[in-house]
Amino acid sequence: MSEVLTIAMPKGRIFEEASDLLRKAGYRLPPEFDDSRKLIIDVEEENFRFILSKPTDVATYVEHGVADLGIAGKDVLLEEERDVYELLDLKISACYLAVAGLPGTKMNDVAPKIATKYPNVAAAFFREQGEQVEIIKLNGSIELAPLIGLSDRIVDIVSTGRTLKENGLVEYETITPITSRLIVNPVSYRIKDERISEIVNALSEVI
Ligand SMILES: Nc1ncnc2c1ncn2[C@@H]1O[C@H](COP(=O)(O)OP(=O)(O)OP(=O)(O)O)[C@@H](O)[C@H]1O
Ligand SMILES: O=P(O)(O)OC[C@H]1O[C@H](OP(=O)(O)OP(=O)(O)O)[C@H](O)[C@@H]1O
């Protein structure tokens, strides 16, 4: 019998598409998987242990080795630069990071304010553009910031564009496209390489 692999799955938006992909790749996940408040789900037939976590915490579990594998948004990986390897672009939960703001506005000449959930990505983007900005970290409802005068611009995820539109904001620049990635703990990758390669191959077939 092969060893158990622990996989950190993001709850929320990515969860359904990630489970569908695993099923398409031939893994039998129980119905409990889709409708449960349990945070640890053992799938004995496949020798998997799933841990269900906040999307932003997946890479933390993998970095610390309490999960061998994980599924995480590229946005989170760019923001946190965790010590994990990226094995596959799963091409699910596609969206992109963009700079947005009120239409027809210029950024303040001196230290324009940028509100975002992604302070590191935003700082790196404006640094590369040669702009000195002040980053304001928020945890959600980022689109509020320019509407109430907290910031000149936001850096946030855009998917359908509906949130920007309904709040009267426009996109100024695209930063980078985002999809979810399969990530691995570097030590697990070395010692559980056979099983991990098997999963990578099975998933590659259905991406
Ligand atoms: N429209 C979208 N808004 C936000 N994230 C999206 C969107 N479309 C795809 N994603 C992907 O889904 C991930 C976020 O999932 P979800 O929205 O469930 O988490 P969250 O609730 O924002 O995270 P947290 O619970 O930590 O605040 C992002 O990291 C990104 O990769
Ligand atoms: O382009 P759209 O399809 O409208 O999606 C983009 C919106 O979705 C996300 O917010 P989320 O729903 O996660 O809420 P939050 O503001 O609490 O982060 C993101 O931060 C945008 O606000």
TrEMBL record:
Molecular function via GO: ATP binding; ATP phosphoribosyltransferase activity
Known pathway: Amino-acid biosynthesis; L-histidine biosynthesis; L-histidine from 5-phospho-alpha-D-ribose 1-diphosphate: step 1/9
Reactions catalysed, as given in the entry: 1-(5-phospho-beta-D-ribosyl)-ATP + diphosphate = 5-phospho-alpha-D-ribose 1-diphosphate + ATP
Pfam families named among the record's database cross-references: HisG (PF01634)
Similarity field: Belongs to the ATP phosphoribosyltransferase family. Short subfamily.
Function comment: Catalyzes the condensation of ATP and 5-phosphoribose 1-diphosphate to form N'-(5'-phosphoribosyl)-ATP (PR-ATP). Has a crucial role in the pathway because the rate of histidine biosynthesis seems to be controlled primarily by regulation of HisG enzymatic activity.
InterPro entries documented for this protein: ATP_PRibTrfase_cat, ATP_PRibTrfase_CS, ATP_PRibTrfase_HisG, ATP_PRibTrfase_HisG_short
Organism: Mesobacillus persicus
GO biological process: L-histidine biosynthetic process
Protein name: ATP phosphoribosyltransferase
SUPFAM superfamilies cross-referenced by the UniProt entry: Periplasmic binding protein-like II
Major localisation: cytoplasm
The encoding gene: hisG
EC primary class: transferase
Subcellular location: Cytoplasm
ATP phosphoribosyltransferase catalytic domain location: 54-204
EC number: 2.4.2.17
Lineage: Bacteria, Bacillati, Bacillota, Bacilli, Bacillales
Domains: entry comment: Lacks the C-terminal regulatory region which is replaced by HisZ.
A GO CC term assigned to this protein in UniProt: cytoplasm
Oligomer and partners: Heteromultimer composed of HisG and HisZ subunits.
